[in-house]
Amino acid sequence: MMDIWFRPLVWMDYRLEVLLAVIVPFVLLIWALFAKQEAMEKLLIIYWRVASLLMITVYLLIPDWKVGFISGFAARVLIAISLWFWVDLNEEIRDIPQNLFKLVFTSWRWAITGYCVLGAIAKSIFLPCGLSSNKVASDFCQVWLEAPEAYRSLFHNKPGNEGVLGFMGAVGLVIYIIYLAYFVLIRLGKQGRSALEQ
């Protein structure tokens, strides 16, 4: 594969994703449970449901399935929306007195939002990779498949299992789409922008 000038940026994006989208929110969720901050806990649980599309995307990209480029873009957009969509949670979090946990949580919330918005803009350039088999085979697109392959080598190091892992990602994507459709078509109509049960 020829040298791609933005390869370091792609790997930096994956590293930031692990930090901001996995490690920090996991620590915050544990912290919220111990601090008994229900609103933040609820928002973090919602975040994890939405952000699961990032892991699904990794599994879709392992066998070079082009739909992974589209799901990766969609994940950034949906995460950014989910963190600010809920009126009741926004109000409850705003009313919490200032403390260290709220400062860390708010800082992460803005950081991951900015990361997802900028990431979605950057990923939009690569959306053609998800629409053409010829395009996805180009070095321009293949550079995005290096990190998922490294993940496979680290956690699923068995020769020839790319198709099985891709199938797992496809099943996850179908379940995700069904749940998202249920939320948009049924639950959103009943509860609106309220995260808590009425």
TrEMBL record:
Q: Which domain of life is it from?
A: Bacteria
Family annotation (InterPro entries)? DUF3177
- Keywords assigned: Membrane, Transmembrane, Transmembrane helix
- Transmembrane residues, as ranges? 14-34, 46-62, 68-87, 108-126, 164-185
Q: Which Pfam families match?
A: DUF3177
Is Protease one of the keywords UniProt gives this record?
A: no
Protein known as: DUF3177 family protein
Please tell me the species this chain comes from: Waterburya agarophytonicola KI4
